[in-house]
Here is the input.
Amino acid sequence: MAADALAIIPGAVLRNLADKLYEKRKNAALEIEGIIKQLSTAGEHDKIAAVIGLLTSDFAMSPQANHRKGGLIGLAAVTVGLTSEAAQHLELIVPPVLNAFLDQDSRVRYYACEALYNIAKVVRGDFIIYFNKIFDALCKLSADSDANVQSAAHLLDRLVKDIVTESDQFSIEEFIPLLRERMNVLNPYVRQFLVGWITVLDSVPDIDMLGFLPDFLDGLFNMLSDNSHEIRQQADAALSEFLQEIKNSPNVDYGRMAEILVRRAGSDDEFTRLTSITWINEFVKLGGEQLVPYYADILGAILPCISDEEEKIRVVARETNEELRAMKSDQTEGFDIGAILIIAERELNSEHEATRIEALHWFSTLLLRNRTEFLGYLEGIFEPLLNALSDPSDAVVLLVLEVHARIAEEPHHFHHLVSYLIHTFHNNHVLLERRGALIVRRLCVLLGAEKVYREFSTILEKEGDLDFASTMVQALNLILLTSAELAELRSLLKKSLVDSRGKDLFLSLYPSWCHSPMATISLCLLAQAYNHASSVIQSLGEEDINVKFLVQLDKLIRLLETPVFAYLRLQLLEPGKHTWLLKTLYGLLMLLPQQSAAFKILRTRLKTVPFSENLKRTSSANPYSQILQVTEDGNRNQDTPNYSAINFLFRLQQFESMQQQHRDHLKNQLQSRKSASATVLTQEIQRYEESHSSSVPEISRPPSRASRVIS
Here is the structure.
């Protein structure tokens, strides 16, 4: 076959075809073109195939670079000579040209581009069957190290694009896998090449690039963070065009793309995050039920972006979050409340306050719309919600309390909440000191002060840690005496002796308030049970009046000067009617050190009492056996209009019993400390004696007591 070709092509032409000078190779190619035209006209296709074989084996595949260059230009000349009949010989012509794209010699690669360009101009649409291989070659050449090769490849690329856009044989289904494989390439030239093809194909009406967008969307987003400004612009332009098409298209696969957008929303690159969130925003508006299974993933992408450093991202993320929360997809198939709760719980640990707040808004929304389903997941999220009460942000704590208040609408959940709060305060005294008042006050507003205080009292009455119970009761008592939110509760307690509700509340609080003498006295002053308050004061023993007690007493004396106790101070204007009040206040005065500021405050107040009558006390060992009598008329003191409604004798016994438990507890603590100290001291002595006995000679040791007795 080679011999036939040699007979067809003159030797001089073949020599010129392998010459190092381009002009000689070009002239030889023109002669070959003329010969092929003649053979084509005569229908001598076997001879044409022989010529192609010769050009391939002896030239295009030759180890000599000039021969390879001649072979490439010769194959192009054959195609030009064949004109309309070239299609039937393409399977022989194109492969050696494509193989030359991988040649080590840059000039050979350049001539391969030139040859394929000329071949493509002739065959046009028939060229499409080799498109995938040509695309692969062009992709590599676009990043070629030689600028001339790159330039030649760009010219060829433009021609191939023109051919593809006008061809009806192009298969987008076969092309997409090629595109997808290369989308994550980092080379900037390759990226430009790929974006260029995506843009061109998307402009062809008969090619549905939007349907295949999920296959290369991630790659486009990856290009948004490229170092080249031009590539970022091209990728952004392509994405903007696709987003516009999505808005105008009735059939879009939102689900697959949503997964990509969620990943990209967490990108380190600011522009990528902004573009991702913008797409998610549009998807939430357009996607409808298609996006329901992806709500949790979308939420997981949105919530962190709400606290983004870039304001544009924050604005879009907030808008998207509101849109998502406003969508009522409760009953839609695929709506997974558990997955959303997991995301919300995760974001409760975010370092950003805004994100934590929005996570809590989701808890509230789901609890409001899907209460039954929400409570089914309560066991897993209840503790994280309680831990959120330790959040450094007051705004977060208030929202957490709102969520808890909604959960606590059922009695058993309410009891669980208060029990867990007490447990948390027990383990975290700092939280009690810093946030206890805020938490209790807010719960009182949300759930009702009386309900909250009754539950706290019921649980604290049985508290085993007496020191904590005392601390907790003191905290609750201070809130009761100072908080505006508890004004109604104080008003109800003032009626304890005349109103059944007030009496029930007093009796409910009293057992736990017995953990603290000063809390008990405060409660009695609120309830205007001055007789009992005086009895409580007189029941106190020496060991009860310690530093902690005096600190609490100091606070109470100062509180007596506040508007909360204005009624009590006004009652001092009628000392004849409120003798037990006077006795109580004087009792408190007697407990205070004279040098203290509280002593001076209370003494100054008592000096203002207008004693217009001579008060006398009845001598009695039991303060409940008689009530103080006033002046000569002997009228019964009107301090307690319905005093018999409450069995105060029993209450006093209850108080004394609780205080005895505290005394015993304190003694046990002291004994334990002494025992521990004694043990340590004994061990020290033993170590000392052992260390010294080992260093004293046997002869010089004094005889032991036992040895002296024997002798």
Residues 180 and 216 are 5 Å apart (CA to CA). The beta strands are 615-616, 629-630, 635-636.
